[in-house]
Amino acid sequence: MLDTVQAVRRPPGRTSSGPARPARRRPRLGPYLLILPALVTIAVLLIWPVVQIARMSFQKVGLRQLRGEPAENVGLDNYRQILGDDEFWTALRHTLLFAVVAVAATLVVGTLVGLLLNRLGRRMSAFVAGGVLVAWATPPVTAAVIFAWLFGTTGGLVGWFLDLLPDWLVGGGWQNYNWFSSPLPDYTVLTICVVWMSFPFVAVSVLAGLRTVPGELYEAARVDGSSAWNTFWKITFPLLRPVFGVLLTMSVIWDFRVFTQLFVLSGLANSDSFNLSLYGYSEAFGSLNAKYGLGSAIAMVLTVLVLIVTAFYTRMIVRQEGVR
Amino acid sequence: MRPRRLRRIALNTAGVAVFVVSAFPVFWMVSTAFKPNQEIFSSTPHPVPFHPTLRHFDFVLNGGIAGVSFWHYFVNSLVVAVGTVLVSGLLALLAATAVARFRFRFRTTFLILLLVVQMVPCEALVIPLFINLKQLDLLNSLIGLTAVYIGFALPFGTWMLRGFVAAVPKELEDAAAIDGAGPVRTFFRILLPLVAPGLVATSIFSFITAWNELIFAYTFMKDQDKATLPIMLQFFFGRSGNDWGPIMAASTLLTLPVIAFFLIVQRRMVSGLVAGAVKG
């Protein structure tokens, strides 16, 4: 079909009227001219910077280099330095642990909500979906600020609520508890905030997937007396496996990268709670640091981690969609 | 009959619970924004303001921090977001047309490139982009910031638009071509009007990307004059002792346009993001 289109509709941009060149061998420039601006933009703004951090991670780059002095090559020094730094391992551990917990929670909550939306009546489903979309649409900055307020030390709702609960269950003194003083409470709040923002996408995607499953399958399962748990693992999950594959890899990538929320909730001053991206940022832009080479080495570690997962993601999309 | 009814009640209760949990933080933001300070910091929280007040909004809108009003940052944010929408929309439309309508060498490579660069951790790119903009003297410049956002919005925009262009029946274009319309004319008279809804959806996505972004703006725009809204929020937030009234008022003003836009395009966002995954 495509070929017919091209036969009828010649690509634009055939302005070159070199008389000597035979028409048939003239390269068809049309599509290349159309992607050129996008390609150049992506190359300059996304690909070249990745090359730059790769290069800078082997250099000493500081304020002098900002003024134009050439950077000095230091070989593997930057990597040696971060690998020998406890802060790096803490940040790496935070990044990985947070991703595991947040991704698992996001997928479970999102899937449950998706299943629920599928079971609800039409109006109820639209109503609940409306609420879910509000969570999805909230900008990360505001989400983080709102959760900082919910978990605030004075007047924070969560502290007040926890103090209402009996002491034997949750302990006391929550009203004045500082949630942003050490990594565990920090990451608890961060996880709740990130899961709250990301489960809607999972829910809506699962719902879209469920709508494609033929109803007879569930009918048959019900007639056979299958439990909800069995029905999910025997019917829903295998059929939606591609959806779950994409959702899993995307969530892992997003949660590896989480920055804005942690930046707002815990901040640059709180170095105990750094993850990789915040650690790298702080080496470069934290007060009095300006160690751009070191920051680049950390950014490189993060980029490689993300790109490994991206390889799986891309393979899945290419297989399912057929990028033809 | 009975158990079925019970089940219905249980499901609907769960539904209401999901709704409440999802919407509550945003509700709490808006509610706090209208509360006087005694109510905000009272030891028993009020669900809704008992004595609603506009003073926090007044403070934010009429020169809260150092006499610079919300509107100043609003204009900066708007300029950056609209610039991002226009340029990335145009580039994405051209590229999407190429991949949806032509078969050419490196087409697949280009598509895979689009997928991969969407996932590149932008946070990792702050350092080189900062240095590049510094050398081009584009720090503290709305143009420099817009350029960076165009790069972030473009890959997903192209990917999303590609579906919309592909959905326009080629026969329409064939017919126009047979009737003697050139490629440019066919593009403007046939393709563009039919792709318009997709273009709107993509534009809103790009708008939200630029509007919400904090880290690059925070790093590049050190002049308070050039700050965008998310940075303004940090001005309020970062100050000693959090003054939650103005913070929530500013958050509300920042958030509501995004939620409104988002509700318009959410369906397309889903299909763009998990494109193809559901086809199994």
Layout: helices, strands, pairs:
The complex is a heterodimer of chains A (324) and B (280).
Chain A: H1 2-8, H2 30-56, E1 59-60, H3 63-66, E2 72-73, H4 77-83, H5 86-119, H6 122-137, H7 140-150, H8 157-164, H9 167-170, H10 183-210, H11 215-223, H12 228-257, H13 260-265, H14 276-285, H15 292-321
Chain B: H1 2-33, H2 37-40, H3 55-61, H4 70-101, H5 107-119, H6 126-135, H7 142-167, H8 170-178, H9 183-212, H10 215-220, H11 229-238, H12 244-273
Helix pairs in contact in B: 1-12, 3-12, 4-7, 4-9, 5-7, 7-9, 7-12, 8-9, 9-12, 11-12
Can I get a quick summary?
Chain A is mainly alpha-helical and 324 residues long. Chain A has helices spanning 2-8, 30-56, 63-66, 77-83, 86-119, 122-137, 140-150, 157-164, 167-170, 183-210, 215-223, 228-257, 260-265, 276-285, 292-321, and strands spanning 59-60, 72-73.
Give an overview of the whole structure.
The complex is a heterodimer of chains A (324) and B (280). Chain A is mainly alpha-helical. Chain A has a single domain (86-287, 295-321), classed as MetI-like (MetI-like fold), CATH 1.10.3720. Chain A is 71% helix and 1% strand. Chain A has a two-stranded antiparallel ribbon. The two termini of chain A are 13 Å apart. In chain A, 44% of the residues are buried. Chain B contains 12 helices and no strands. Chain B has 2 domains: 2-53, no CATH class; 60-279, MetI-like (MetI-like fold). Chain B has helices at residues 2-33, 37-40, 55-61, 70-101, 107-119, 126-135, 142-167, 170-178, 183-212, 215-220, 229-238, 244-273. The model of chain B is unreliable at 272-280 (pLDDT under 50). Chain B has 280 residues and is mainly α. Chain B is 75% helix and 0% strand. Classes of the chains: A mainly alpha (324), B mainly alpha (280). The interface between A and B is large, with 120 and 111 residues. Chain A: Belongs to the binding-protein-dependent transport system permease family. Chain A: Residues 92-313 form the ABC transmembrane type-1 domain. Chain A: One of its GO terms (cellular component) is plasma membrane.
